[in-house]
Amino acid sequence: MRYVDEYRDAELGRALAGEILATVEPGRHYKVMEVCGGHTHSIYKYGVDDLLPANVELVHGPGCPVCVIPMGRVDDGIAIAHQPGVIFTCFGDMLRVPGSKGTLLEAKAEGADVRMVYSPLDALRIAKQNPDRDVVFFAIGFETTAPSTALTLKRARADGVENFLCMCNHVTIVPPLRALLDSPDLRLDGFIGPGHVATVVGARPFEFIPADYGKPLVVAGFEPLDLLQSIHMILGQLADGRREVENQYSRVVPYDGNLRALEVLAEVFELRPHFEWRGLGFISQSALRLSDAYADFDAEIRYEVPGVSVADPKACQCGEVLKGVIKPWECKVFGTACTPEHAIGTCMVSPEGACAAYYNYGRFAREREVV
Amino acid sequence: MLVAADLAPSCDHQVGCITCGDTAVPLRVVRVEDDPTLAVCADADGAREIVETSLVGEVEQGVTLLVHAGVAIQRLDEGEADSLGRPQLVGESGRR
Which of A36, A253, A306, B53 fits A63 for a cystine, CB–CB 3.0-4.6 Å? Predict the structure, then answer.
């Protein structure tokens, strides 16, 4: 298919790998973070890391929205799902994310009406089909997904659907990146920027990374050649002494984003003062809630939720994995007590999660061969 | 024991999760619905879905859209890649 096949060309990939090898300084160790869980998935699916020199290390970032949901929010969702008459809808991955007393899938087994949807528009359709019941959509995701929720809420209002509600867990990408960069135990040389978040917000919001922290960021696409080229661009900036935001994915990402989408987000959402991130703690203004104009659709206003912050299981080291401090296999329970079928931590639940990517693609090798 | 793939084909480990990750997919417009903000789109295998298109303006049959969670977030118009359909080379349009 056009826009896919041409970015998987093996010959071009080998050529880019050669250019990367020629760009790195022997004896220098490079740590590059891919912010987005979709990039983590692509890197292991296509073996991009196997084409890199041994001194270029990829570190996995916090960009999987499922992985950063804290247990307390899952508990809140389950509490709403158990309310009489409620149909609770969410994306597939969320069903298996453990809260402190179980998962949404287990809540379904106990009798709650929990349904998986592919889009919030599907949840709205269910609401129209069940006018005598409240249909709650558990909204999750970064700025890529938030416009979909926002458009659905606008459509619900336009169509007069009063039984459609949203439990909003949308998060924003810049505050956690700032938190990571302020973290004393993390040393990074550059960032592979999230291509589809940037499709919505543009590349401009990432300018603080070179300006305030002196590190390059390259907004990247998701095909193997996109990733190799982005890594080459980051290493090239480091070699030239430049620190900039560059846009490798300019066939998709406008530098200022999708202005229509940004207008819709500004109308439907406002920033929460604080939001808890798994592994990163509470971060100011890092998540969205419904604006006052859409308060009638806010599930957290219509239903009482526990709202209790719950600590992660002691054995779980998702926090360190999300910050890139340890590799997934260095977690005490990786591949033993914690597997995709019986996940303790969220990084193992979602295919976008770093642990699941390692587990599913057999990345058990502790050391890579030198190319 | 149910695994994710049983519950959600989109969450299959081979294809990743198109709804919850930061991942969107290119789909081609097959037909614009009576409501012009909705279009039937198809993927490379021909699987069809209805897509909300109001964030990318007016669309017509044959254009390719980048779709995430049922919503088109960008048009993939001809001419954005280089003449061979490959990524831009470093130092050309890839650099700001």
Answer: A36
